Amino acid sequence: MPREEDVLALARAVVKHGGNALLIKENNVPDRWVAIEEAVTSGRAFAVEPKPGLVALDLDSAELVAKGLKVKVWAEVYLHAQAVLVASGGDGRRHLWVCLPSGMTKEEFKDLLSQNYEFPFENIRHTQATRPPLSPHRNGLPVSLIEPTSVEEALDRLGPADGVGKVNPPKWLPGKWASLLRNGDTEGKYEGRHQVEAAIAQAAVRVGLSKEWFISEVTDRRNKGGAKTQEVEDRHGRQAAFKSAGKTYDNAVRWVTENGVTPSFDLETFKEKISAFREAAEQAAFTRSTDRDVLLALIKHGEEHCSYSPMASLRDLHTKSGRAIDTVRRALQRLVEQDWLTKGEPVGETDTYTFNLEMSDKSSTYSSLGGTERVCTSNVTHPLFTSPKGLAGRPAEVWAKLPTSFVGMSDVVKLTGLKSHQIRAAAKKLAAFGLAEIEKGTGPKGGDRYRSVDVSSEHLDQLADELNLHEDQYLKKMRIERQRAAYAASGRSANKEAG
DNA sequence: CTCAGGACAGCATCGTACCT
DNA sequence: AGGTACGATGCTGTCCTGAG
What is the end-to-end Cα distance of chain A in Å, rounded? Predict the structure, then answer.
């Protein structure tokens, strides 16, 4: 049994800055987010989102463990990466934590892994929450460090805690400022190009974006709002441009501090509001389940970018929601008509949508007697529930909302807000996957009774694998990447950057 | 009268190709 | 990087029938 202080130290070493711990129930269903200290003292299983530069490989089969051992040697010898191998509790299962060398991105590492070792995409964790080394297994199975065996050495390899002394910044400016940055002063509202940059810098300071972020954006040739800095670069070189942009940012910091402007963006409030909105979306009765799935995908995007009005391209939402691009577009139109979203000004070519947060109070929800814990974004975005080949649509919704104890049709109608025939069809499909049971003729009026079956996320993965859905998802992603690569090669982006 | 389930029309969705 | 168009496919919802 590992010491609590060791578990805490290791969790802090792997978690991203400001990250919390996700408690995991004994049936492997996510419970709720709590502070890391609370998770450790609870003695329960928990997972944390890894810090930047840290990747966890989930070695959940003998074959993958063998691959993982090779990867470890390769990463240490050729990449000069630090690695920690952990027994994660399950029979023979291992987690391999790899601290990437500076300069290598997670994407590059992932590519190398799949090229050199055909390592499956879905077993590479870098944004997804993962159980830290020595953290308890959900069923109390023994966990241990395999290499290195000492906690001190493991801590050493995992490196210092993430983001000491830095704030957790949102990744995007509010839409208006993002538009100014991307398109420049199209309305002629500013006296000159410097004023445009100054305005952007102030907005950046208010939302907590760093100086480095500001400099890299205004020197990016695609951003017309950085025209002034770009001209400095052309005339006097890169160093001068950095210096000039840095000065603009520093002035903005001084102005914001001197004028006592309170930062407009408060992360805690954001989290509160966005999760209320998400719950409303999860519970509301949509005429099309696609609408809900697309909305949840957009909310997820907003959460990732800390934005109430995220810029999400149709292709981003397509990969997130599993629906075709055209389908996503129609769903967005309907969501605007239904008042869930307000369409804003496009930033560059990307449309923005603002969440109508008051829907959290207005939306008509139905009673939620059971199964509500299954209505969560992680399930909604699982390939099994996003692919029409799998259980996308009504079946996903019915599974999420159906209790695990048998209920008659009229109750299911009340619980789901769906029509009986929709439920029948969905239940039939779910039953074929073993995710629901139908009991013939035991209902109140001679009808059938239904119940859902809770399963582990591994089981969902397995079902998805049987239909090749993980592969489909991967191929979809690759298709988009090819489109984007073709665009880059076509020279259009180069022209854009030059002009 | 309620409910299950089949037939079927219509439309949503997917994939692909195309445009800016 | 983005949005848009359109044919093939198959799901959704309506209507209807028959069983309990």
Answer: 62
**Which residue in A59, A61, A57, A14 sits closest to A39, CA to CA?**
A14
Residues 375-394 of A with CB under 7 A from strand C: 388, 393-394
Residue pointed to by tokens 């400095």:
A232
Is the distance between the Cβ of A487 and the closest atom of strand C smaller than 7 Å? yes
Q: Tell me which fold the domain A267-362 belongs to.
A: Arc Repressor Mutant, subunit A (1.10.10)
Could you identify the residue written with the tokens 């993980």? A470
Per-residue confidence (pLDDT) for residue A496, from 0 to 100: 34
Same fold, A267-362 and A377-463: yes
Give the CA-to-C1' distance from A280 to B2 in angstroms. Answer: 33
Summarised one tens digit per residue, pLDDT across range A72-131 is: 888 888 778 889 999 988 788 899 999 877 656 676 677 777 777 778 777 888 767 889
| pLDDT tens-digit readout, A411-443 | 777 666 666 667 777 777 777 777 777 776 665
Cis bond upstream, residue A148 (ω within 30): yes
Residue A485 has pLDDT above 70, yes or no: no
Q: Which fold has domain A377-463?
A: Arc Repressor Mutant, subunit A (1.10.10)
Kindly report the number of other CB atoms within 10 A of residue A362's CB atom.
10
C-beta within 7 A of nucleic chain C, residues 333-352 of A: 348-351
Query: Other CB atoms closer than 10 Å to residue A469's CB: what's the count?
Result: 24
- Determine the length of chain A: 499
For nucleic chain B, which protein residues have CB less than 7 Å from any of its atoms?
Answer: A 288, 290, 322-327, 330-331, 349, 388, 392, 408-410, 420-421, 424, 443-448, 472, 476, 479, 483, 487, 492
Q: Quick one: residue A204, left, alpha or beta (phi over 0 = left, psi -120 to 50 = alpha)?
A: alpha
Distance, in Å, from the CA atom of A121 to the CA atom of A225, rounded to the nearest integer, reads: 38
Percent of the residues in chain A that have a pLDDT greater than 70, as a whole number:
68
CATH no., domain A4-158: 3.40.1310
**Closest nucleotide to A348, Cα to C1':** C2
User: Can you give the residue ranges of every domain in chain A?
Assistant: 4-158, 175-258, 267-362, 377-463, 468-499
